[in-house]
Structures are given as structure tokens and as C-alpha cells.
Amino acid sequence: GDAPRILESPHTVSLGVPDLLLPASWQMLRDVLGSDITIGSHTVTHRNLATLPPHELSHELSESRIALERELGVNADAIAYPYGRSSDAVHAAAAAAGYAAGVTVEFGVNGRASAPLALARVSVPAGLPTSALTCWGAGISLRS
Length: 144
Hints:
- By secondary structure, this protein is mainly alpha-helical.
- 37% of the residues lie in helices and 9% in strands.
- The longest helix is centred in the middle third of the chain and has 19 residues, at 54-72.
- The N and C termini lie far apart (43 Å).
């Protein structure tokens, strides 16, 4: 992946990016892997996959899976598309690269008829209290 490049970038230092916002190191990821944590792919360089030519698209998808296998020993068969951007060509390339599931940023709940490489999601806002998340998960929400 590109974490070492980002972490060592003079731009990161000069912009004063807080450690909390930097990408996790391979060791940090190894430390959290377990029965409750799974690791998926987010590509090599976080580019908009829907705009890439086929050879670059293939590289972004396959090299990310290879790095995750090499560094963490995981079979990352799910991908969260950078910026949530995808297309039929991206879905086909993801399938060819060995992915079983792909997540967009389209809001929604998935069912049996959902395309596994174009899944919707419900994003949880940062700082949402656990009690509110519990209510939200149960289908209870405030309406304006």
C-alpha cells in the first residue's frame, strides 16, 4: 500500500496532520485483527476507479489485495470503493480481481436482490452516541 509514502511525505509533516488522521501502519492493523475485526480493500492509491483505464483499474484492485495478503495474511474479498465511485466496468474488474463484495456510498439497505459488487450502506456519523446508534439500528429516528 501507500501508507509508508504518505507517512513519510513532507507534505504530511508540513501540513501538521494529526497522528489520529494518518493511515494505520501495518503493525497497527496486525494488532487489531481478530474475531471482531476484518480487513477489506480500499485500493492502492485511493483513486476514483470509475475514471481509470483498464490496466490502472486492474492494478489498483489486484495490488491492494496482494498487499493485504502479504502484510496481514488476510483474504480481502471485499472493497469499499474510493469516494464510493464505481460503474459496471469497475464491478466487472473487481470480480475479475477476486472480490466478492463491493461497497458504494449510496444510502440504503441491501437485500437478496442487491448486486454484491454494488452494495449500498448506511453511514454512521462521527460522534453519534451509542444510545442513538442503538435506536437508529432498531429503526427509530427523529423526523423533522
